[in-house]
Amino acid sequence: MPVAAQPSQPACTPLHAIVDESARAVVERMRRINPRADPTRWLPDVHPSRIPRHVAIIMDGNGRWAQQRGLPRLMGHRNGAASVRAVVEESGRLGVEVLTLYSFSSENWKRPPDEVAALMGLYLEYMSGEREALVRENIRLMQIGRREGLPAQALAALDETIAATSRCTGPILCLAVNYGARAEIVDAVRAISRDVLAGVLEPSAIDEQTISQHLYTAGLPDPDLLIRTAGEMRISNYLLWQISYAELYVTDTLWPDFGAEDLRKAIRAFASRRRKFGAVGE
Q1: Catalytic site residues?
Q2: Nearest residue to 271 via CA among 44, 86, 35
Q3: Domains contained in the chain, number
């Protein structure tokens, strides 16, 4: 709900400075993770408790963005990388704890070899070029997806960046690279099967928590909000288990054009919805 001005406050007091106790407590919690979080300033019309903890994004439309401008597809991907930076920064300002980006799916290997090579090159550039900034901003990097098939140089840069940010205690940036949700579930089932065969887990003890603990995202909260750009109305094998109760937001905006204000718009839409989780609403 919007934060309402209190009668005792001077008329000139900015709205972001007028915070009730419950909102203040939420902001304090956010700032324990990220001292720069200031959602009441950047989204004054959204109560801080309505900010999603975990936002997942399907970044679609890089190729179309380039084609519309008569540019090579690689230019779309390069401009899309700039949007990643803008959205990571804005997520921090709004108090989002986890941002998961669908960077390269296991199906993307079907693309032309030169485009795949260019994407891997951009991935390597990002891992190397953003490492110091991630550490400086106290952002911990995670990667979900299979390592098999990724170029050795990209894996080395990934491991170096993960190690450099391993002690960061702030927001988490999770990149889904060589990722597919069905493959993730297969890997979880295999791991659980090994535990059963080893006698450390009884089949009757397997429950939803067991499966969640064996997914790539173990330890992370499930996404509250899933954003898809470029207007496509599908999930594309992304976080199928984790988004069971996520709110979906689809925008026609192509990913290279998606910025801070677009993220705020998506969160406003999220905040306006009533999440019932199968129960009866008020």
Answers
A1: 60, 108
A2: 44
A3: 1
